[in-house]
Amino acid sequence: MLTFISAIILAAGESKRMGRPKQLMPLGDSTILERTVDNFLGSKVSEVLVVLGHKAEDMVKLIAKRPVTITVNPDYRAGMSTSIVAGLSLVSDRSEGVILALGDQPFVDSQTINQLIEAFGAHTKGIVIPVYQGRRGHPIIFSKEHRGELLKLKGDIGGRDIISQHPDDVLEVVVNCEGVLIDIDTPDSL
Fold this sequence. Notes:
Layout: E1 5-11, E2 26-27, E3 30-31, H1 32-41, E4 47-52, H2 56-63, E5 69-72, H3 80-88, E6 97-102, H4 110-122, E7 127-132, E8 135-136, E9 140-143, H5 147-151, H6 160-165, E10 170-174
Parallel strand pairs: 1-4, 1-6, 4-5, 7-10
Antiparallel strand pairs: 2-3, 6-9, 7-8, 7-9
């Protein structure tokens, strides 16, 4: 049976280190955000939710015709946790887990996303983390059992504290995708 997984793509940030909205920057024949969204749409996720904030109007124009649910987080300046909470408010009741994805990770391919979903469905662990060459990366799947903890997050953090509080509930999945480690934060990284 297929596992119902909701993808929450976090794309609300101001891209301060980049100096301009990185999600809107060109990448091949599209943009960073479009490529990230398309990789999830091409995977086995059951629904794709995109949380926008800074320059939301411009980003909506890029992805509005795709089969995604878009929400704008008015509190995005208060940190990533507010975008996680905004995304969780849209997750289907049928969802068995959420995959938290960064809007600036366009090099995580659909095959790698599928590998994480398949591992989540095949194991009892509630947190699934991709590992490339010994280093943990993103996106990360959290089971519905961790929803309450995710909703309590504060500030500019993701699920790092939840992961450290539940080391026995973590499944590391070795992947062959360097993209799980690459997020685009500066002009040089692009």
